[in-house]
Amino acid sequence: MSKVAIVYWSGTGNTQSMAEAVKAGAVNSGASVDMFTPSEFSSSMVSGYDAIA
Fold it and tell me: Rounded to an integer, what distance in angstroms lies between the CA atom of residue 52 and that of residue 39?
């Protein structure tokens, strides 16, 4: 199972909706997904994920 980080920022909610759609697609493909805002995600976390969107 792959581990995916989705990093997004949304001012009006539109980008958050798209990030949630990406998450749903990844989960349906068998991935484990974590979602973060840019302030929550750091470069030290990159190696913990197989993919970053």
Answer: 15
The burial of 19, by beta-carbon neighbours within 10 Å (0-12 exposed, 13-18 middle, 19 or more buried), is given as: buried
The string of pLDDT tens digits covering residues 11-52 is 999 999 999 999 999 999 999 999 999 999 999 999 999 999
- Flag whether the pTM goes above 0.85: yes
In the block, tokens 């539109």 appear at 14
Contact 41, 6 (CB under 8 A): no
Could you tell me the two tokens for 28? Answer: 């349906």
